[in-house]
Specification:
Blueprint (H helix, E strand, L loop, with lengths): L5 E2 L8 H14 L7 H14 L3 E5 L2 H11 L5 E4 L6 H7 L4 E4 L22 E5 L10 H11 L2 E5 L7 E2 L2 E2 L6 E5 L12 E5 L2 H10 L4 E3 L2 E2 L10 H32 L5 E3 L13 E5 L7 H10 L2 E2 L26 H9 E4 L7 H13 L3
Parallel strand pairs: 1-15, 3-4, 3-5, 5-6, 6-9
Antiparallel strand pairs: 2-10, 7-8, 9-10, 11-12, 13-14, 14-16
Helix pairs in contact: 1-7, 2-7, 3-4, 3-6, 7-10
The structure holds ligand T4K.
Length: 371
Amino acid sequence: MSAKPLYVTEPFLPPLEEVIPMLEQIWNSKFLTNGGPMHQQLERALCEHLGVPYISLFSNGTLALVTALQALRITGEVITTPYSFVATAHSLLWNGIKPVFVDVDPVHLNLDPKKIEAAITPQTTAIMPVHCYGNPCDVDEIQRIADRYNLKVIYDAAHAFGIQCHCGSVLNHGDMSILSFHATKVFNTFEGGAIVCQDAKTKQRIDHLKNFGFVDEVTVVAPGINGKMSELNAAIGLLQLKHVDEIHRLRGAVDARYREALRDVPGIECLTPGNATRHNHSYFPILVKPEYGRTRDGLYHYLKEFGINARRYFYPLISSFPMYRALPSSNPSNLPVAHRAAEQVLCLPIFPNLTESDQQRVIDAIRSGRG
Ligand code: T4K
């Protein structure tokens, strides 16, 4: 089939005529990195846009996760979800921390608060949930548990840019929230990420840690890493920000069309939107149930025949990868809901410039694929 390939996402790019003047500013300033003017401007602009008090930019979300754990001096065991991108758990291993996987809830596929307490041991120091697909976790219940056991909460909010919940930005829950600005994300700086925190002293510690631990020219206070965002990436971020409301609107329209068009397809269930008061429509996950007559993998391969590259986010489960498989909490009997989701979920193409006719190709292929 020679149809134009369609990917799960296509990055939004600001118009080139907006990029050139930004490049000229960088060329003129000769500040390319290390907290230059674009970097500072983007931190301020993001605090305002997202409604958060402090943000530290990073070169990617993974280094932000690794650094957040260091900034909070997390050790021992951390309770987390197996249903995520592998970077979530990798950030724990990079810090010598043991991940303890807890199953997800069947509706939004986020860490199930009802199952957290049973996994707490004397070694547990923190909980690291993920707002999967941008659907907010049960932040209040997670905080209650954390308070009861004196645990830190670090949200992997890689999918949660711009998400608002009952009390404002979802990024203000927990001790820290981590964002990813990777090319495939709702808001991208090509590569990039950030930590949101709640006080100036913590931000200062994070900023030291992302710059080798330097406090000044001659003082190093910690074995920090190089996690800095360059001026080029920050400039792209500033330009994206001008378009982000339009991006949300266009994604929302794609989301609504899928929901309407797939409503009556037996065995296809669109994941229920979470209780956000503002969504970002970063992913469009469907569950392929037995009534569809073709398995999720069957549909995944069938769509490929039409040039449609849907993605099985998140399959395989993190707990199935070799470096996690032997952990007691990785036993599939401990994670039945996550295992079922990993077998049933397919993320369909969703991005601002997805045309109605290309989206119709996806819908028609799903309809025609019924076994
Ligand atoms: N925590 C969570 C919960 C995450 O989801 C992620 C990242 C992280 C932490 C870590 O944050 P970062 O360190 O990445 O900032 C992608 C992304 O690489 C990754 O950022 C993302 N999550 C994950 C869910 O998806 P892949 O391996 O699926 O990406 P890839 O290269 O296959 O791209 C998907 C499709 O997007 C391609 O088929 C085509 C299109 N694409 C991709 C790129 C890179 C483009 O059109 N242009 C591009 O430049 O991981």
